[in-house]
């Protein structure tokens, strides 16, 4: 028995696939892999943040994480075997079609569904490496409490784009957890754990980018350059229906550049500064 990271109840946990089985089958190779570009660092004895860079190529990562409940209890079928399973069933046809480069008109409901699926999957990705986990307990509870209406937590932005892969249609992600601080001493007064993240999924021809911050009262400001070249479009917040794909496609190199971009944290008063991937993170549920 342990605490489920979504519903917060003390339950029997099951091994949940980070990327679902159907996705791995639709978009080979079947052996899951992920790509991560990271900047790591540490706090020295004086309390100053010290950068140390590490760039990783294709690396083996856990294919499952044991953080969600599965057991039935008083009519509740558990997170893994309940609402998460239903979500995969709803998202599969649409994400499969997009991944196979099939033109689709995305309604607001479609956009909301894709964004909710991407946000849930991002939260699973974070548990493959605790040092990059940036979402809060409150954000995961919000996702759970709005599982039927499929509302993603506040201060979350999701973009959609297209990839023209040079080889067999891939699947995987780039994930970055960072520490954001604010005020005049923002450059040195950074938190000891990640509180904002950027995760970019590539699923065949489909690109989904999830940005979020766990600092109350703060909102991410996605730089205009991300959409100025017409490669990406916001689906969270949702917009009027549009036809996918939009604009020009990423190639694998420009996708890597996009996935390593820096973004801003906006909200009055002022703009915060993002530190780079602190290593310590409490292992709470």
Describe the structure in your own words.
The protein has one domain (2-274). Helices cover 22% and strands 31% of the residues. The protein contains six helices and 17 strands. The protein is α+β, with helices and mostly antiparallel strands and 285 residues long. The strands form seven sheets. The chain has a five-stranded antiparallel β-sheet.
What's this model, at a glance?
The chain is of the alpha+beta class. The chain has helices at residues 21-26, 83-99, 108-126, 137-145, 225-228, 252-259, and strands at residues 2-3, 10-11, 13-17, 34-43, 49-59, 64-69, 104-106, 156-162, 171-178, 180-181, 196-203, 206-213, 219-221, 232-236, 242-244, 264-266, 273-274. It has one domain.
Q: What is the element layout, followed by pairings?
A:
Elements: E1 2-3, E2 10-11, E3 13-17, H1 21-26, E4 34-43, E5 49-59, E6 64-69, H2 83-99, E7 104-106, H3 108-126, H4 137-145, E8 156-162, E9 171-178, E10 180-181, E11 196-203, E12 206-213, E13 219-221, H5 225-228, E14 232-236, E15 242-244, H6 252-259, E16 264-266, E17 273-274
Antiparallel strand pairs: 1-2, 3-6, 4-5, 7-15, 8-12, 8-14, 9-11, 10-17, 11-12, 13-16
